[in-house]
Amino acid sequence: MMRAALVSVALVMNCGLAAWCQDAAPAVPANAATAQAAQPAPQRDQAHEWWRGHYFTQTWNAPDGTKLPLISVKGNRFVDPTGQPMLFRGVNIADPDKVDGEGHWNRELFEKVKATGANVVRIPVHPVAWRGRGPKEYLAMLDQAVEWSTDLGIYVDIDWHSIGNLKEDIFESPIYETSLPETLNFWRTIAAHYRGNHTVAFFELFNEPSVSSGRFGTMTWVEWRDINEEMITIIRAYNKDTIPLVAGLDWAYDLTGIRTSPIRADNIGYVAHPYPNKRTQPWPPKWEEDFGFAASKYPMIATEIGFESSPGAQYSGAGDYGHQVTSYLESRGISWTAWCFDPTWGPTMLKSWNYDYTPSGQLFSDVMHAPPTPLGGPVKP
Questions:
Q1: Cα-based distances in Å from 378 to 85, 190, 294
Q2: pLDDT tens figures, 45-102
Q3: Would you list the domain boundaries of the chain?
């Protein structure tokens, strides 16, 4: 009985509510009802045709893509088409996405890079920025950089700027988070896009691999070698000429693994980042032990060097480090790019966007304007 009574009450309440809603609802004009009924179905071309999606693996036909001489590897040297050894001196800029957001992504930036005396510019592409912009928009920025560099006679190193353990997908901070599939797809895109472009001389496969004393997990040199070889395989499927650059472990500092297990590929170079905080003085003997030895057999480029003048700073080294590191590198035939031609990403070479130099910026520019150290020894066959 109680259940029957409750059902009756509910029916009465529902009927009353329905009647109230019908009374309260405004009447729909006949013409409006007709208009709603007459609305056309969505056009076919307005549909999201997901099956037309594609990867960005088309080659960019830059009008001056072959203007600069093609750089290749011969023995332990980077060489031009005549076989003449090339010593690269240059700078890093900040991520194009950052520079553009600050209103300074323009030809003037590259003119100022050229004014330092640089013949190469390293462009760091952060995974988070690549995803945020998307390949189409980010490639458009890189194309601008390549066009400006070509006009100015500067070569380009495109760097996948991550820090951490790619094997375990553990990274130093969110801005460096990526994965092996994303990294491989990035290089597939970049290799195809810049196929045949002489200005883009280098593909730097991964900025700074590190396990950070176990904080990023584990990864041996052989495991890292195998990952790099996979990247190189994909790159070579699209692009035979651009030179892949492979970084050592320990934040791109330690290349001792190649003594017994070098990368099993031709036409590559190796990378080191010998910042002053990596080892205590005297530096040169330790640099020789940790990475410099490789220059006797392989072409090398130290794609990050830099210092801060403030005592106690992370990269404190002052002019003593700057002169020592450039002298040592060039005595071994190792090319280099200073970090960073930017007023906020340290160690900074600029005080502001007025392009006034910090002490490190001035020192590295002075070195680049001086005659290069003659490359020691013959090119090794």
A1: 9, 33, 15
A2: 556 788 888 888 999 999 999 999 999 999 999 999 999 999 999 999 999 999 999 9
A3: 76-369
Cα separation, 280 vs 287, in Å, equals 10
Q: How far apart are CA 113 and CA 355, in angstroms?
A: 10
DSSP string, 205-242: --SEE--GGGTT----HHHHHHHHHHHHHHHHHH-SSS
Question: Are 130 and 95 contacting, i.e. CB atoms less than 8 angstroms apart?
Answer: no
Does domain 76-369 bear CATH number 3.40.640.10? no
Q: Which residues 6+ apart lie within 8 Å of 326 measured at CB?
A: 305, 336, 364, 367
SS3 letters across 94-135: CCHHHHHHCCCCCHHHHHHHHHCCCCEEEEEECHHHHHHHCH
This prediction has a pTM of 0.86
> Which candidate, 374, 363, 286, places its Cα nearest to that of 330?
374
CA 254 from centre of chain: 20
